[in-house]
Amino acid sequence: MRHTGPGRSASPSLFRMLEWHEHIEAERQQPGARVFLSDYNGDHPYVEKYLGELADTAPRHLADITRYAGLDEDVRLRSRIAAMHERYDGVAYSERNVVPSGGSSSLLGTFVTWLAMNGHRRVHYVAPVYYKLAYLFRAFGIEPVPVASGHAYQPEFDLSLPDERTVLVLTDPVWYAGRRVPQDVLDAIAAWQRTTGSLVFVDGTFQYMPWDGRPGEASARLPVERTLRMVCPTKYLSIHGYRCAHLLVPAALRQELADLHINLHGDVAVSDRLFAHRAVDVMTQHGNGDLVGHIRDNHARLTASGALAARMPVETGFFLFARPHVPHRWFLALDERHFELDGHPGYVRVNLLNRAAIEALAATVDSLASGGGVSGGDVAGQGVPVAPHSG
After folding, report:
1. Domain range holding 20?
2. Cα–Cα distance list, 183 to 189, 190, 221, 289 (Å)
3. Which of 94, 114, 158, 222 has its CA 20 to 30 A from that of 49?
C-alpha cells in the first residue's frame, strides 16, 4: 500500500458496471424472466420476533398519525442510536453524530448532492461500490477515480492513496462476497486521513451481520471527525418493507447534512419512525443471531446439495459468491461484471435468504444427474416463483 501523486485515471469501468445493472433490471421486469439468484429480498422465520408490537398493532395505535413523524427531530432516537453504536463499537458517539433517514438510498442521494453543492467534481473510491452511487456520480458529473487494483479481500489488492485532500468512498463489508475489509486496509486509510485531512464515506449497509458473532465493526475506528458511515437496520433484520437507515457523521457536519436531507426527501412515515426505534431495541437487546443462524443453515443446505462447483468463503451478510455447476445462462444473476471484478468467470451472487434461488439451484442437481438439460424458461416454470428485485 502506497501513496501516489494524482492517482489513477478516472474509471469508465464503474459506469460500464452501471450499464450492466441497467440491462439486468430491464430483463428482470419482463414476463417469464429467469429466476433471479441475486436479488435482495428473502424471507425468514423471525420477522414477528423482530417487529415486536409492530407485527400486530396498527401504527395509528402506537403514535399520532395526524402529525409528521419528525424523524430527525427525535433526539431520543438519535441518542439511542449513538448509545447502541458506542456499545457495539466502543466508539464515543452522541446524538450530534447521527442523521436518521428512511433508507440508505436517500442517504446516498443526500451525500452525493452535498458533494456537488460543495464543489467536489472528483472523488476517489475503492471498488466495488453500490450501483446507485455510480448512477449518482454520473448524474451529477462527478468523476470517480479508483485507488486500488482488485478488491480489499483479495491477495492482489494494491491500495494507492493520493497525496492530496480528497473524498474517498469504500464499501465495508464487500457485500456481494460477504467479506470484511481487512484491518490493515482500514489502518492504512485511517493514517492517510490523518495525514491529508481527507473525508471517507463508508457504505456499511451490510454491517453487523458477522457469521462468527464478533461484535463491532472495524471501520468504526476510522477518525470520527473525518468519516461518514452509513448503517442500515433494515438489512440487519432483513425486513425491507420498512425503510430505516442512519448516517454516522462528524458533529461539525451533522446539521448541514440533516437540513439537506430533509429538504431533499421530506419526512418518513410514522411507521418507519416506530420501526427505527424497534430496530434499536433489537440491536441493543437480543441482536440478529437467529437470522444469521438461518442464513448459515441455508448456506449449508445449498453447499450440501452439490449445486455449486466452487464458492468463496463467507464472513458476513446474506450473499454468497459462487460458481454453479450449470451454465450461467440458466439464471438471471449478477456476475463479476456487476462489481468491477475480474478473474471469476461463472461466479454469481446468490441471495441465501431467497428460497426461490436456493430451490432453483438445487433442482439443477437432479437435472444434471439424469443427463438432461434445463433451459432458463424451464427453471422459471418449475413452480418456483421469480423473486422481485429491490434496492
Report:
1. 13-45+289-365
2. 10, 10, 10, 23
3. 94
Counting Cα atoms < 13 Å in the Cβ hemisphere of 288 gives 29
Residues 74 and 41 in one domain: no
Q: State whether residue 58 is helix, strand or coil.
A: coil
Q: Which residues pair with 210 in a beta bridge?
A: 316
Claim to verify: residue 75 and residue 215 sit in the same structural domain: yes
Backbone angles phi, psi at 26, to 5 degrees: -65, -40
Entry field: residues in the chain: 391
The amino acid at 73: E
Q: Considering only the C-alpha atoms of the chain, give the largest distance between any 2 of them, rounded to a whole number of Å.
A: 64
Choose among 216, 218, 206: nearest CA to 291. Answer: 206
* Domain total of the chain: 2
Residue 370 lies in a domain: no
Do 107 and 255 have their domain in common? Answer: yes
Q: Could you give the dihedral angle defined by the CA atoms of residues 212, 217, 221 and 226, in that order, rounded to the nearest 10 degrees?
A: 160
Q: What is the pLDDT of residues 84-106, one digit of tens each?
A: 999 999 999 999 999 999 999 99
Model's pTM, two decimal places?
A: 0.91
| C-alpha cell read off for 372 | 438432461
Helices (H), 166-240: 183-196, 233-237
Residues 144 and 269 in one domain: yes
Instruction: Check which CATH number belongs to the domain holding 38 and give it.
Output: 3.90.1150.10
Question: Would residue 261 count as lying in a domain?
Answer: yes
pLDDT at 388 over 50: no
pLDDT in the model for residue 377: 39
Q: pLDDT band at residue 2, thresholds of 50, 70 and 90?
A: low
**378 falls within a domain:** no
Helices vs. strands in the chain: H and E counts, helices first: 12, 13
112 burial level (CB within 10 Å; 0-12, 13-18, 19+)? buried
